[in-house]
Design goal:
The chain is α/β, with parallel strands linked by helices and 318 residues long. Strands 3-4-5-6-7-8-9-10 form an eight-stranded parallel β-barrel, surrounded by five helices. Strands 1-2 form a two-stranded antiparallel ribbon. The longest helix has 17 residues. Strand 7, helix 5 and strand 8 form a beta-alpha-beta unit. It has one domain: TIM Barrel (Alpha-Beta Barrel), CATH 3.20.20.
Length: 318
């Protein structure tokens, strides 16, 4: 697996990472161990974690694995501050930030996170209060690098400027949903990140599994779309426009002798993403994900996929 640095930092990550959204709920501990082993065997290292994943149980699964079968030093742990509510916006002040981080460290039985991502903050929380608290985490050695998750570009740029003005540790990463079926972030986050030296991390680069082609003809009984609590993640991508884009990906894969998964991930990485975080729920899915080295797409194919998926640059919220 290829490795790259996150933005202007010295943090090196594999270009594919593993998300733990379903661990502790849909993914059994044995499968989780297999998935993590598959990541490491393929040369990857980034594991995305959050107190909100798996209905609160995902971090416990990760912690058990780190203290039994895996070495902490082999992994880049990308943690997130709990939103403290349903949704993605953070609620609470300095105390919540401390509770969330310390709870994660305690559950994982580790002293630090390699990267901490912060979601859109509580509008009533002063920016300087939040950012100085994050700086304390870095100064205390509890966090190595900072980043922003699912924030508007202007807000991330504003926060970074405040951090620079206050001589605080600067952010190194932006994380957001990004795929051929979710391209809105190209309008603002991409140019902002490039100008400020921030590395881009893509959540759901396979659009909840739709870009693998598994939903082209039916809904598999063991898929996300077949489960009540995950169906809403998939449903928007099963409409007519995303279906046409998915078919174009499948056609490109057939012509290149590659898989739709390979093509969809290659497109995201070729568009400047440093790490694409995938979420295989089973051992078999992880094995399929890491079977081949992802190579760049021919420029003609890359451009065709750009054109076909262009409606998703400014598509309404999915």
């Amino acid at each position: 697996m290829k490795h790259t640095k996150i933005g202007n930092s010295g943090l090196q990550v594999g270009n594919l990472g593993i998300g733990t959204l379903n661990w502790g709920r849909d993914t059994e501990p044995a499968d989780a161990a297999h998935i993590l082993a598959a990541l490491l065997n393929a040369g990857g290292n980034l594991l995305d974690i959050s107190p909100d994943y798996g209905e609160g149980d995902a971090e416990a699964v990760v912690g058990a694995l780190l203290n039994k079968a895996f070495s902490r030093t082999d992994l880049i742990l990308c943690g997130q501050i709990s939103a403290n509510k349903k949704g993605t916006e953070l609620r609470g002040g300095r105390s919540h930030l401390y509770r969330s981080l310390h709870g994660t460290l305690r559950t994982l039985k580790t002293d630090y996170l390699d990267l901490l991502l912060v979601p859109e903050p509580d509008p009533q929380m002063p920016a300087a209060e939040m950012l100085s608290t994050l700086a304390n985490f870095v100064e205390q050695g509890k966090v190595r690098y900072l980043g922003f998750s699912r924030q508007s570009a202007w807000k991330s740029a504003q926060f970074r400027q405040i951090m620079e003005d206050l001589h605080l540790p600067l952010p190194t990463a932006l994380a957001f949903p990004y795929s051929l079926l979710e391209r809105r972030t190209e309008l603002d986050n991409f140019p902002m990140a490039q100008a400020l030296g921030l590395g881009m991390i893509a959540f759901s680069p396979l659009a909840a599994g739709v870009l693998t082609g598994k939903y082209r003809n039916t809904i598999p009984p063991t898929s996300r779309a077949a489960t009540k609590h995950l169906y809403a993640m998939v449903a928007p991508y099963l409409e007519e426009t995303p279906r046409r884009i998915t078919e174009a990906v499948a056609k490109a894969a057939d012509g290149l002798g590659r898989t739709p998964t390979d093509v969809a991930l290659a497109w995201a990485l070729q568009n400047g993403v440093a790490c694409a975080i995938c979420g295989p729920r089973t051992a078999n899915q992880a094995d399929q994900l890491f079977t081949t080295e992802i190579e760049e797409l021919p420029l003609q194919v890359f451009n065709v996929l750009n054109d076909v998926s262009r409606p998703y640059i400014a598509y309404p919220s999915l």
